[in-house]
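[Meeting: bench + compute handoff]

Bench side (C.D.) handed over the final construct sequence. Compute side (W.E.) agreed to return the predicted structure before the next meeting so the bench team could plan truncations. Sequence as handed over:
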Amino acid sequence: MTSMQIDPILLLGILITGLGLLIYLFNESIKKPVIAYFLIQLTVIWIFFGQKILGPMGLEIKPHAVVFLLTTLVSFYFIFKHFDYLWSYKPFRYLFFFFIISTIYAIFYKTDFRSSSYIDLWIHNNLGLKHSAIKSGLGTISREFGSSETKYIVYLAGLAPLIAFVAGFMSFKSGGLKPTLQNLISFFSFTSLTYLIFLGISILAGTSTLMFIQGRLAIDGGFTGNDFEALLLIMLVGFYLYIQKNRDFKLYEPTKWSIITNIIILSLLILLGIKKGTILSLFIATHVVIGLIFAVKLYYKEKIGFNFNPAFLLAPIFLIVLPTIFCPEFAETTLYNIQDRFASTDTIDIRMVNWELYNQYWAGNFDFFKALFGFGIDSSREATFFLTAMHPEPSMQQPHIHSIYLEMFYNYGLIALLFFLPFILILFGNFKDILHNKYNIFNCLSVTIILFFLVYYITESPAVPSIIVIFSLLGFLESIRRALSEHQKENPVYN
């Protein structure tokens, strides 16, 4: 598809307007930090709009890159201005140290793999990366952030977690939790629904493709139901439960139905994409939290009840009953595909073979220095490329090792603990609130999201947007947790 030609004068006007908007948003984000959080949280959506809307119009503007630049400026402003406040919070300290060390690694201790001629083979041998290279694929669309084939993405390894977390963590420092949160929930749900609507329009217009590959739903060649959609689903369910207890705002009804529509569509995308890692991680994370809540309720001898809106009963009807009645063959085929997908061990077999080969290579080159500092940024992907290239079967050739733990500790050694410790500290902090029966929906959200991340990435290696999404979420939920703990007596409605 060719792009439209834009008049140079008009393009200059657009650029000047964009610069003015960037300056305006920076000033507003300083006053209302939640703006920067909202923008960076939806990074993948901005990537989609850049590819599917601005690109065909001839505007080679990447809104996700502009948002990242804005968030970087805002976050470093807060770091310099409120350093003592941030430093008092231990997870920030670890992320700050990881940023400094990772930046040193990016300059002095990295492989030249991305700048070598092997990178073209690396992309060519992987379907997902090929889709990324031609700017397509919903499942792989997030790799457009910096593009995996460029050599500059190594500098984002420590920067992205830090600025995303700070943007989220500063959201409610200035107060105004309840009205700001209600407005954010409305904008969040409306933006997500708009994204899904434009995705449907893009499919109908032919700028995106929808098909079933081996019984799994794929949009632009990428299977649906990735980590972004799962995290978005978790957040929206949490937001729905929150507004059910806090209905005193003008946009309650449209927000409620927007969230319900989002939940139904996202659930369908996850189910039809049949991504085992997503479904199993969601199942484990949600059931651990539900079981924990039940245990706490029983321990404190509190009544166990359910307070669901009847509208939630529509979800099973849309997801199961209606397809069975009106499309029995499709429903039967889908159930068979789900069963067949979970019965298959093909993907885990490939990973197990590669993990064994990878660990043998790791052990053969292991020493005290490598234990402490690793092999350098991108070394894991370089090693994976050469090791899996020895397989005669193309499906065994992988662009990364499919495990965040193997990748991070191989690259950084024990320094990788600085990356993982914020998850552990935040998880324990929220666990403590729940076990002491002082929890709210946002404690439950934090635990669910962290458990999902820790389980999901046992068999996956995250792209930069995934890191941005998870760390901005963690910072945002911790900002709410801090605001609630400081004003618990004055704001009992949040209990």
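W.E. noted at the follow-up: The longest strand covers residues 210-213. C.D. will use this when planning the next construct.
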